[in-house]
């Protein structure tokens, strides 16, 4: 058996005979500071090809008579984020210039759904704007760019190739959610 077909299984300490999987492009591993071993990886029902590329759907802006910038009506018809339920939490997943980002879906300010927000590049920081109050949260670390003490939780995201060749997204969590083991019926 060739070395290419032998690898250590992630679920046991044994060596499995598996098909060689091509390496994932570097852009998926945009956060090199994440060590995969420190996370519990949850499989999403989403394929990487199903996520809308934000750069394919730019918003068009206009200015009001008093000089305020707003999204032109009819230009914000595409929802850029994808919402998934994992580990007892709701996560919003975005794709921007080929990179994937995962952030908690509920805005930490007033719990609006961030997957409905707009992606913006603010002074070189990629952000998701809350659809309710337009507060921008960094997709890298979740920090709000306004001078308030508010931060959304970001999660590492990986693409893994399945046996059928499709690329499935996995989101990493540092621990199991308490809600997974809580049952109010007792």
UniProtKB/TrEMBL annotation:
<keyword id="KW-0408">Iron</keyword>
<keyword id="KW-0411">Iron-sulfur</keyword>
<dbReference type="Pfam" id="PF13806">
    <property type="entry name" value="Rieske_2"/>
</dbReference>
<dbReference type="InterPro" id="IPR017941">
    <property type="entry name" value="Rieske_2Fe-2S"/>
</dbReference>
<keyword id="KW-0479">Metal-binding</keyword>
<dbReference type="GO" id="GO:0008942">
    <property type="term" value="F:nitrite reductase [NAD(P)H] activity"/>
</dbReference>
<dbReference type="InterPro" id="IPR036922">
    <property type="entry name" value="Rieske_2Fe-2S_sf"/>
</dbReference>
<dbReference type="InterPro" id="IPR012748">
    <property type="entry name" value="Rieske-like_NirD"/>
</dbReference>
<dbReference type="GO" id="GO:0042128">
    <property type="term" value="P:nitrate assimilation"/>
</dbReference>
<dbReference type="GO" id="GO:0046872">
    <property type="term" value="F:metal ion binding"/>
</dbReference>
<protein>
    <recommendedName>
        <fullName>Rieske domain-containing protein</fullName>
    </recommendedName>
</protein>
<dbReference type="GO" id="GO:0051537">
    <property type="term" value="F:2 iron, 2 sulfur cluster binding"/>
</dbReference>
<feature type="domain" description="Rieske">
    <location>
        <begin position="68"/>
        <end position="166"/>
    </location>
</feature>
<keyword id="KW-0534">Nitrate assimilation</keyword>
<keyword id="KW-0560">Oxidoreductase</keyword>
<keyword id="KW-0001">2Fe-2S</keyword>
């Amino acid at each position: 058996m060739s070395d290419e077909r032998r690898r250590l299984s992630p679920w046991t300490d044994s060596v499995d005979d598996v098909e060689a999987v091509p390496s994932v492009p570097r852009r998926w591993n945009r956060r090199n500071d994440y060590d995969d071993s420190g996370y519990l990886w949850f499989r999403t029902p989403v394929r990487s090809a199903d996520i809308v590329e934000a750069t394919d759907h730019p918003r068009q802006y206009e200015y009001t008579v008093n000089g305020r910038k707003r999204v032109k009506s009819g230009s914000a018809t595409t929802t850029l984020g994808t919402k998934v339920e994992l580990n007892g939490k709701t996560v919003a997943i975005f794709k921007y210039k080929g990179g994937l980002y995962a952030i908690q879906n509920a805005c930490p300010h007033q719990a609006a759904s961030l997957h409905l927000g707009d992606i913006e590049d603010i002074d070189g920081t990629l952000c998701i704007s809350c659809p309710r109050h337009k507060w921008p949260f960094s997709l890298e670390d979740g920090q709000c760019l306004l001078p308030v003490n508010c931060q959304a939780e970001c999660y590492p995201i990986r693409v893994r190739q399945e046996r059928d060749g499709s690329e499935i997204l996995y989101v990493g969590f540092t621990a199991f959610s308490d809600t997974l083991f809580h049952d109010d019926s007792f």
